[in-house]
Amino acid sequence: xxxxxxxSAGALAGCLLLSAPWLPVAGAQDDAILPAxxxxxxxxxxxxxxxxxxxxxxxLGALGGPGIVVDEQTRQMLAAARVDPALDLEVPAEDxxxxxxxxxxxxxxxxxxxHDGEPRLLSVHFRHGGEGPTRHRTIEPNExxxxxxxxxxxxxTVLQVKxxxxxxxxxxxxxxxxxxxxxxxxxxxxADEQRLLLRGMGHDVAELARxxxxxxxxxxxxxxxxxxxxxxxxxxxxxxxxxxxxxGVSEGKSLSLHQLxxxxxxxxxxxxxxxxxxxxxxxxxxxxxxxxxxxxxxQVHSFVEAVMIEKRFVMTETRPDEPRLISVWHLDSGARxxxxxxxxxxxxxxxxxxxxxxxxxxxTLIHLQHTDVRKLVNSLRSxxxxxxxxxxxxxxxxxxxxxxxxGPELAxxxxxxxxxxxxxxxxxxDER
Length: 432
Prior knowledge:
The protein is α+β, with helices and mostly antiparallel strands. It has helices at about 10, 55-60, 70-80, 95-105, 145, 165-175, 200-215, 255-270, 275-285, 300-310, 350-355, 375-380, 405-420; strands at about 15, 40-45, 65-70, 90, 110-115, 120-125, 135-140, 155-160, 185-190, 195-200, 245, 270-275, 295, 315-320, 325-330, 345, 360-365, 390-395, 400-405. Helix content is about 25%, strand content about 20%. Strands 1, 7, 8, 9 and 10 form a five-stranded mixed β-sheet that branches. A four-stranded mixed β-sheet has the order 16-17-19-18, sandwiched between helices. A three-stranded mixed β-sheet has the order 3-6-5. It is globular and about 70 Å long. The model is unreliable at about 1-30 (pLDDT under 50).
């Protein structure tokens, strides 16, 4: 999985897994989670022959994938959820179930086990209209790596966290939870056992578990001073196959945002998921360039993102694996409250990479060696003009902060904190 860096042995010292270290299960394949269909899943809707999520689920079942059980209300909702006609994909059989989950998750649906024998049955539910999942798969922590590819399958597991008071930590984390059906947690066992029960969708549970596992090895901001930034990763987004020409108003051919995104998707080989509400706004909002520009291929991704965030649209990675799916959200819609919950987890060292991607939310842990974290958070509250685009969360009684927001702002904040988090000089002789 691309958006979560693997926990190292050092990280595992900070977050013990109850019965086994957090390592991939030897020989375990993804097809043990859900049955793979017998052939690739073809997604090829058109304006003349549209596809809906119900059609996709039926196609998956017809190829030997899991059988689907839905009530009449949910069936009507799935039949009304149209798949974007711009999608034209042939999904490999081994990726089909995880891909379908990405489509379901984007539209706020999930599926859960009904019958785990033969034939395998799953029921589909709307996440925002009911009481959430009634069945969670109980898994071992060392299985989280595989379930991280499943954003619409409910799971639960128990972690034992060291190095931070779990009760205080859980109170701090509550501000992260925007939808309890997608992610929730609870203290379990005796107070001194430091155990957390995590419940939610596979991807979200794995994301939180990875973050907790990383508490023990986050490099301090002050390490190496405030000089050169120790970037460790690579840009995860694809480079466009050619330059992008964007006409200007002076040519009388200004593009709509929808047209710009269609060209962007074509050049980068990514598929976009757009709700009907978002599509209707994208169709009427223009790019608005005063003159035509030609964007070099290497800059296409960051250029389009800059235009989108300027127009108050953001993007999230619904599926970072191939075939890649990017969802587009409008910050003036009700969806603005869930955007940061879809942030990519990165190391703070890699923020300069995401500074070039201003439309994708990210979250990162920072470790402050010489600063009182709680006092700092109180001082920084005035910087948070909207909790939908920036969150600063102290993690329990530790020296760690969780920052959630967009690359440029978080990178600037970390640059500032690197300068501030320095050891105080001892008092001068005449001051003693």
